[in-house]
């Protein structure tokens, strides 16, 4: 029983959604902050669009969606059936 709990905990700990969501969230916060403080010259280079702000918000939303998905549907450890090969 405790072996099943340990494998489930390991499966949740190394869930790829947590890694992707965490990275997108951190990078989204950074790019959003950069976008808030963009100079007018940088905005003019992007045809008048605050591209860093919009991309940062998009990355932040995507990262939070990944983390929400991981929270709502946590990873379960696969059932490990022990099979023996008696070929001797």
What features would you describe in this structure?
This protein has 88 residues and is mainly alpha-helical. It has one domain. Helix content is 69%, strand content 0%. The chain is built from four helices and no strands. It has helices spanning 2-13, 16-36, 40-45, 51-72. The longest helix is centred in the C-terminal third of the chain and has 22 residues, at 51-72. The radius of gyration is 21 Å and the shape is rod-shaped. The protein starts with a helix and ends in a 16-residue tail after the last helix.
Secondary structure: number of strands? 0
The secondary structure category is mainly alpha
Terminal Cα separation, in Å?
A: 31 Å
Largest sheet: none
- Count of helical segments? 4
- How many domains would you count in the coordinates? 1
**Percentage of β-strand residues:** under 5%
Keywords:
single chain; mainly alpha; about 90 residues; about 0% strand
Compile the SSE list and pairings.
Layout: H1 2-13, H2 16-36, H3 40-45, H4 51-72
In short:
69% of the residues lie in helices and 0% in strands.
